[in-house]
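Q: Hi! First time doing this. I have a protein sequence and I read that you can turn it into a structure. Is that right? Here it is:
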Amino acid sequence: MEYTAEQIKDLVVEACLDKKAKDIVVIKVDHLTVIADYLVVASGKSTSQVKAIANNIDDHLSKAGVEPIGREGIPEGRWAVVDYGVVLAHVFNEESRKLYLLDQLWSDGSNVTMIENKDWHFCIYAALHNLVNFANNNCMNNYIMYENVANVSNISSYDNYHNYLIINDAKQYDFVQVVLSVGKIRQAVCYELKNGEVLVGTLTEPLFSLSERLILMQDIEKKVNEITDKKVYVTFDTDLFVAISKCKDDEKAGNLKELIFMRNSARM
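A: Yes, that's right. Below is the predicted 3D structure, encoded as C-alpha cells:
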C-alpha cells in the first residue's frame, strides 16, 4: 500500500509520542521546497533518548510497510534524521535543537503545528470524559452513549483507562457493547435515528491500510446487524465521533449520515 505524505507524517508523530519526545513540531514545507512535504522535528532529553526516538520511528513505520530512504546521525544521538522522501524526521538533543534552530529556518509563520507530547490516546479519552457525562445527562431517548471511565481524575495513565467499565442502560449495552466487542475498538458512540438507522462513531487502534479499515467496518456493521436490520453508518474519524456524541436530533443526525457516507465513499 502507498501512503500519502500526511499519513507518513502522522505515523512519525505517533512514533515520537510513543517514546515521550519533547517539543514535537510538524512543519509543512511543500510550498517552500521540493525536498519534502513535511518536516517533523522533535527533541530528546539525552543522546540515548534521541537514538531511541529515531529507532522507534524506523521500527514503527517499518511495521506499517514504510521504509526510509536514508538514516543519518542516529549512533551519535545529537541530531538524527530519518528520511522518507516526502517526510523528513529530525530528532535533536536539546543543545543541538537550540543551536540549529531548524524550526525557525523553515517556518513562514503559518505552516507550523505544535504536537502535545502526552499519551495521545489518553488525552483524547480524558478530553471526552466531560462531554460524555454531559451527553448522557442531557440526551433524548434515542441517544446512545458508552463511557468506560469511572473517574478520569483517578486515572494516571492510558493503561489504567480500560480498567473501568460503565454501562448506562440495556439499550446502550445492546448497540455499543456489540461494537466494543469487535477487535481494535477502544471507544464507541452510537445514535439511532427514528427510522432505525444507526450512526456508529469509533476511536480505534491505529489502522495502517484501507483493507484493514474496510474489514473492521464490515465487522462492526455485521455485529450491529445482529440487533437491527436497518442500515448502519460507521466512521473512524475523531471529529465525527465527537459530532455523533453531541447529536440530539434526527436533522443533525441525517447530515452526519450523509457526511459519513461521502467520506467513506471517497476512501474506497
